[in-house]
Design brief:
With about 140 residues, the protein is α/β, with parallel strands linked by helices. Helices cover about 25% and strands about 35% of the residues. It has a six-stranded mixed β-sheet with strand order 4-3-1-2-5-6, sandwiched between helices.
C-alpha cells in the first residue's frame, strides 16, 4: 500500500465540561493534525499519473477544516449556558458548536470523517494536543 502523510495546525481554545482536572477550565492549544491516506495502486492516467493523490489538494483540503477551527472556541454542544454563548457571540467571539466533547480523540475522529467525506481513503488521523500528547483514530 502507498501511504501519503501531511500535516496542518491551528490554534483554538476548548474546555471539558464536568471534567475533574485542569482541562475543565477554558484553555488553548496549538493543535497539530496529521493525516495518512493511501491506496493499493497509483493513478495510471492523467496529470496525477504515478500519484496516490496530489499533495497540494490533500494539504488544501485538510487546511480547510483546520482554518475553520482556527482562533475559535470549540465548545461541546450544550456545554455553555445560553446567556454565556450569547454574550460571547455579542462580543464578537467565534464559537464552534462541536458534537461531542472537544477532546483530541474526538477531534481525530472529526478530521477522519471530514477527509473521508472529501473522498480520501483515510488510513489514520492523529491530533497532537501538545508536542508530547496525541490521539489517533483509524477504522
Amino acid at each position: 500500500m502507498y501511504i501519503l502523510t501531511t500535516t496542518a495546525n491551528f490554534d483554538s481554545a476548548h474546555f471539558l465540561k464536568d471534567y475533574d482536572g485542569k482541562c475543565a477550565n477554558l484553555h488553548g492549544h496549538r493543535w497539530v493534525v496529521t493525516i495518512d491516506v493511501g491506496s493499493e495502486e497509483l493513478q495510471s492516467e492523467g496529470p496525477y499519473r504515478g500519484m496516490v493523490v496530489d499533495f497540494g489538494k490533500l494539504k488544501d483540503d485538510l487546511k480547510e477544516e483546520a482554518d475553520r477551527l482556527d482562533h475559535a472556541l470549540i465548545a461541546e454542544s450544550g456545554s455553555l449556558k445560553p446567556e454565556t454563548l450569547a454574550a460571547l457571540e455579542d462580543e464578537g467571539f467565534r464559537v464552534i458548536d462541536f458534537d461531542g466533547r472537544p477532546t483530541a480523540e474526538n477531534l481525530a475522529r472529526h478530521f477522519f470523517d471530514f477527509m473521508r467525506m472529501k473522498g480520501y481513503q483515510v488510513i489514520k488521523v492523529s491530533v497532537y494536543e501538545t508536542p508530547d500528547n496525541q490521539a489517533s483514530y483509524t477504522e
